[in-house]
């Protein structure tokens, strides 16, 4: 609805036509499809993750294997990140193409039930198709960003229709001003929508992971230890931050609106209320 509203405004008041919306969506889809099919390998590589076998680390591998069997998922690939940071993430477009990565620091710091809670959370992301959900959101956010960018470029170089029809009246002028404001703010609004959905999926993965282990206290204690650690994950980037179980940068955002993760304290409280 948001994309359609912007397209209507560009066509009705700026004279750009609906073609701009169609082109923006097509470009966003192409860009996101590349990320969809290759994004997991890019994320794992950028994080410095190395695939491990059952022989190399039987403790972590067997824990993932047992949880996968319990949840009815295919066995994902298991990766280790050599870092003292306490973090983990899952990636892959569906259960058949999934990977789970953990840092060496989190394996050393957490007790058995705590690490099991973290891995169950990550496998829940896979089972709930969170990557697929976020892919759809990213397509729409990308389209909105492209439309906003094109609008500013067109205005800068004198493009767009400037209506001279005096019959439009004050109402049309007010609508145009509101539309311009929304178009200017649209990339921010679109990203806030994306972040809100990302946070909702974190809550869902917490709940689904607890249902899998039948022990929400394990994940709650794990989150407490993760929150207490101030070691950032050096290989994390803004593009992959939303994948991790906790903010990998370990910096307090100036506003919770712009955080990819819900407050850990809130997540812990919800887990202990289950």
Question: How many strands, which pairing sense, and closed or not: the largest β-sheet?
Answer: 4 strands, mixed
Distance between the termini: 35 Å
Fold-level CATH name of the domain at 48-131 and 197-272: Zincin-like
Integer average pLDDT: 84
Count of separate DSSP helical elements: 9
User: How many strand segments?
Assistant: 4
Helical content (DSSP H or I, runs of 4+): 55-70%
Query: What portion of residues belong to β-strands?
Result: 5-15%
* Class computed from helices, strands and strand pairing: alpha+beta
Task: Specify the CATH homologous superfamily of the domain at 48-131 and 197-272.
Answer: Metalloproteases ("zincins"), catalytic domain
Annotated CATH architecture of the domain at 48-131 and 197-272:
2-Layer Sandwich
Verbal overview:
With 274 residues, this protein is of the alpha+beta class. The chain has a domain at 48-131 and 197-272: Metalloproteases ("zincins"), catalytic domain (Zincin-like, 2-Layer Sandwich). It is 62% helix and 6% strand. It contains 9 helices and 4 strands, in the order H-H-E-H-E-E-E-H-H-H-H-H-H. It has helices spanning 2-12, 19-46, 58-71, 104-109, 112-127, 130-156, 169-213, 216-228, 264-272; strands at residues 49-51, 77-81, 88-91, 99-103. Strands 1-2-4-3 form a 4-stranded mixed beta sheet, sandwiched between helices. Strand 3 (88-91) and strand 4 (99-103) form a beta hairpin. Helix 1 (2-12) runs parallel beside helix 6 (130-156), helix 7 (169-213) packs across helix 8 (216-228) and helix 8 runs antiparallel to helix 9 (264-272). The radius of gyration is 22 Å and the shape is elongated. 37% of the residues are buried.
